[in-house]
Amino acid sequence: MKTILNVIWLVLCGFWMFLGYMAAGLLLCITIIGIPFGLAAFRIGVYALWPFGYTVVDRHDAGGASLIGNVLWVILAGWWLALGHICTGIALCVTIIGIPLGIANFKLIPVSLMPFGKEIVRTDQPFAAR
After folding, report:
1. What crossing angle do the helices spanning 35-49 and 64-73 adopt, rounded to 10°?
2. Model pTM?
3. How far apart are CA 22 and CA 28, in angstroms?
């Protein structure tokens, strides 16, 4: 079932959100200071391309640097990427078939707003990162 949802997701919004994350990552990697933010954008972009079968877990070893990184991330790119998830989630929820995809879009909003201190793992091993 997750493969079917991933293929439908890829066609309807996954590819476009992936391109948005890749563009944000490239822009953020222009400066040396922005490279960690660009890498986070690339990581989330791959997750946004194929989200079913994966989940986001908190990293308990993340410290104060993650908090500072998340604040800067929201200012630099997070707000716009989360807005993209909100718009595509609302558009997908218009049809009955698109409701699960819209809900998946809404589940991507927290990681698109605060990616530092989080890790993307397979659904069948959510505690492997700990």
Report:
1. 80
2. 0.82
3. 10
pLDDT in tens, the chain (130 residues): 778 888 888 888 889 889 989 999 999 899 898 899 999 999 999 999 988 888 888 888 878 888 898 999 898 888 988 998 999 999 999 989 889 889 989 989 999 999 998 888 888 875 655 5
* Alpha-carbon gap, residue 130 to 98, rounded angstroms: 33
